[in-house]
Structures are given as structure tokens and as C-alpha cells.
Amino acid sequence: MSDISHDRLLIIDFGSQVTQLIARRLRELNVYCEIHPYQNVTDAFLAEFAPKAIIFSGGPDSVMRDGSPRPPQSAYTMGVPILGICYGQQVMMHDLGGKVEAGEHATAEFGRAYVTPSDTRIDMLNGWFLDGSGREQVWMSHGDHVSEIAPGFEVFGTSPGAPFAITADTTRNFYAVQFHPEVHHTPNGKTLYENFVRLAGFTGDWTMGAYREEAIRLIREQVGDKQVICGLSGGVDSSVAAVLIHEAIGDQLTCVFVDHGLLRKNEAEEVVSMFRDNYNIPLIHADEADLFLGELEGVSDPESKRKIIGKLFIDVFQKYADQVEGAEFLAQGTLYPDVIESVSFSGGPSVTIKSHHNVGGLPEKMGLKLVEPLRELFKDEVRALGQELGLPASFIGRHPFPGPGLAIRCPGEITREKLAILREADAVYIDQIRKHGLYDEIWQAFVAILPVRTVGVMGDGRTYDFACALRAVTSVDGMTADYYPFSHEFLGETATRIINEVRGINRVTYDVTSKPPGTIEWE
């Protein structure tokens, strides 16, 4: 639990893969919230956390199974508003005297559905059912369904598979919906959250200006007069973390920029120049390309790559930490989605997707404690914090770049030759995106060099070179993403430039996979 002093909203996580989107919607409304897995939410926890409101997330379980996830009964007697979503609705009905039944063909719903109102005379539905169609599009994902609502509840909306799609006990300020208002496919879902936090009495005081002040206070309390080394990758996250920590403790901070040989074209020079020219922060430029590329030689498995890079990062930081007298802390730009994808948040029930090199703590032998001031922030909040701290707009707006760098954009074995080709192709691609004025419309764009060679014809001669894939996605927070709809003209022009300007590539493809089912990066 953090030491944030704002009014808090507690999200009890029952294992939904989109629980984090609930937090995103609330943060957008300037409401401070925390996600905690149901098994950690005890009576004592609730008393200490003292939430102003509670949301029950969705989840994959069935309330009819013995031992299925439950909130503590004290949640219902605290006198605070509660919103139950999908499984959260079902558990609320079950706990409070209603009934839930196993899904059948007629009642299970997955995907787009439409809710029609039974009664709209509650504040929770302000702004709904106003477009003249008499219904609202929502996103359903449930097998089980509520068959009998709990005493004190009324029905305010129905769908073909959910006769109790929207229910409420307005006396106790308990609300429950069978659909997911947090996802993009419930277009008016944000309005429900706005109504809920308004009736709960939140004033929207969670801003990056306020976060900056509190984070500086917490960093000073944690660090005291000790020295901190910061792993500076050159990306937005670690850069914002470095500037924030420097504002808190000044020259107690030393940044270590590790050039692992897996950076984009001219990136090392740009990062070192920016920090030395704009900020008076002690900076160590650690050229460790030979070390990393040597250890990665012959390695093809993506998880093995990530683990090797993670271990080497720790070894390198240990090496330079030993040169900084009094260093007791290592600072990282770890973000909330990093934590979510690597392990279940705080031990929760969601599924691990892939490991991140900067998540999961440090080995005891390193003797350093972690400082992670951005750990509870999403990417757009970090950008807003960077703006608050005065970082250059051109830098804040940079696309995300993964800690393992080009290693995970080079499926299969990594070689210096493939990395050199990849850098050139990526530089041409990004130049094309900028020239067409598309950079700020895209969340992330990059080239992946594929582990295959293809036959081509250039100048009446046969070529046998690498194929590459272009990737560009739109996203809000990196948790879900859609491919960017480039025109055929743009793709054709870009492919021609890459093949003409980059020796070693003779075929260009475009990746049109969304997330899910794919991830944004190739590995």
C-alpha cells in the first residue's frame, strides 16, 4: 500500500485481464485508485486503507464454486459506494442474498451486446440512453448470470442474455453491471465511472502536479542522505524517473547509461548529449556492448534473451555501483503495465504474459534497495509528469522503447550484422513516419528483422537477403493495441526506400496483428 494522501478508491481484483483498464479510466478522471487482489483484502486491510469507494473487478471464476474469490463481508458494511463489474456483480448478488446460475446458450454473452433501460431515474445513468436509439452498446464476457437480484436491488437495464444487466440498491449506493464499462467496446462506459466517482464524493484531486510533490517527499524519506544510482535507458520512463529523483535529492543521484549494443541508430549519442547538455546530473556512459552481445551469441529463445539481459543489467549496475561511494539504492523507471505483465499485481490471480528485465526485485548479493517512483503510473501519466518536470516536448513524445532493446526485435539468433541492418531499416521507417506527419498518431512503431532469408531480384541479379516486418500500433496505455491503418501508398513508398537504402533486406511486410492476441513487441 502506498503513502498517497489523496482520497482513495479501492479496486478489488478477482483476476480479470482488464482490471488495469478500470484503473486507467479512474486515473483519467483524476481519481487516485489502487488495485489489490482479493486474497490480500482483509478486514484489517480495509480499515487501514479506508477507501472512499470500492469497485469489484471481473474475473474468470464462478461464484458457485466452493472457494471462489470473495471480498470480506466488512466491505458491505463500511458505508461506502460499491460498483460490481461482471464477476463483481455476480459475487455481490451472491453475497447479499441473490442467485447466480451457470451460463446456458441463451444467457451466456461474449462480445458486443446492447442494453436497454428499465428505468433511468438514477444518477448512475446520467448521460446514458440519450442518443435516441433507446439502447447502449456494451461489451459482455460472461457465462454465468444473475438469475435473482439481492433484496434491496432494482433492475435498471437489461440485455438479451442478462436480464439484470444494470442493477442498483440506491439506499446503500451499491451498483452492479454485468458488462465491462472499462473497455473500448463500451463506448459510453466512461460516463458510468464519472457518475460513480461523483456520487462517491471524489473531487478529482489526483494530478501529476500533486504526484510530483508527494513523490519527491517519499523519495527523500526513503533515501535520506544516501547515494542513488539510476539505470538510464534513454527512454521516457527512466528519463522522467531520473529527473524526478534528481529534483528530490540532487547530487546524491548518479545516472548509469548502459550502452548494451542493442540501441537504435545514434541513440547513445542523443541520450548522453541530452542529459549532459540539459541537466546537471552526474552521468556514467557505460559501453558494455561487447559484454551483452557476447553473452547473447547463439541464443534464440526470447525468454532466455530477456533473462540474460536482465542478469547482465544487474551485473553492470553492480560494477558501477561499487564505484559510487555510499550507493545504497538503485532507481528504475518501472511502470504499472510492466508489473502487470510480468507477475500478477501484488500476487493477484491474473496470468503472467512475459517477463520484464526491470521487474521483480534485486538479488540479495547486489546489496541495493530499489527506488521506483513511477511504479504505479501508466505511460500517459509519465508523459504528463515529464511535462510537469519540464522535459523537452520532443523527448516526452518519443515512442516507447523496450529495455532489452533491439534484442526482442530480432527474432532468432542475434548477430552484429543483423543489428546493423535493423538499425538502418528502423531509421528509414521512422523517418518516413515523421515525414508524413504520423509520428504523434502512433503509440509505437519499429522494424523487426525476421530470421529468414528470401530470394529477390535487384538489377537483373539474384539476391538472397533478410525479410523485415514493419510494426505500428495505436494504444492508450499499452495494455491493448490496434495496428495503425497506413495507406497502401505509404507502405509501398516505405518498402521501396528500405529495400533501396538498406543493404541486406530485399522483402518488407506489415504486421496487422492487434494486442491481444499478439503483443506489441515481437518477443
TrEMBL record:
Keyword Isomerase in annotation: no
Functional pathway: Purine metabolism; GMP biosynthesis; GMP from XMP (L-Gln route): step 1/1
Any one GO CC term of the record: cytosol
Residues at the catalytic site: 86 (nucleophile), 180, 182
Taxonomic superkingdom: Bacteria
UniProt keyword terms in alphabetical order: ATP-binding, Glutamine amidotransferase, GMP biosynthesis, Ligase, Nucleotide-binding, Purine biosynthesis
Keyword Cytoplasm applies: no
A Pfam family recorded for this sequence: GMP_synt_C
GO molecular function ontology, one term from the record: GMP synthase activity
Residues holding ATP: 233-239
Residue intervals of the GMPS ATP-PPase domain: 206-398
EC top class named in words: ligase
InterPro entries named among the record's database cross-references: Class_I_gatase-like (IPR029062), GATASE (IPR017926), GMP_synth_C (IPR001674), GMP_synth_GATase (IPR004739), GMP_synthase (IPR022955), GMPS_ATP_PPase_dom (IPR025777), NAD/GMP_synthase (IPR022310), Rossmann-like_a/b/a_fold (IPR014729)
Catalytic activity annotation: XMP + L-glutamine + ATP + H2O = GMP + L-glutamate + AMP + diphosphate + 2 H(+)
EC number, as in UniProt: 6.3.5.2
Subunit structure: Homodimer.
Cited function: Catalyzes the synthesis of GMP from XMP.
Protein name, per record: GMP synthase [glutamine-hydrolyzing]
